[in-house]
Amino acid sequence: MAGARPKSPVDIVHQNAILVENIKKEQRSQRVYTEFNINPFKKLHVLTDKPMSRNTNEHAEEDPTFLKIIHGARLEPTKKYTHPQTESQEIGWISTPLIVSDRSDRRLNFPRQNSEITKYMDAAWRLKEQTQNLG
Question: Model-level pTM?
Answer without folding.
Answer: 0.32
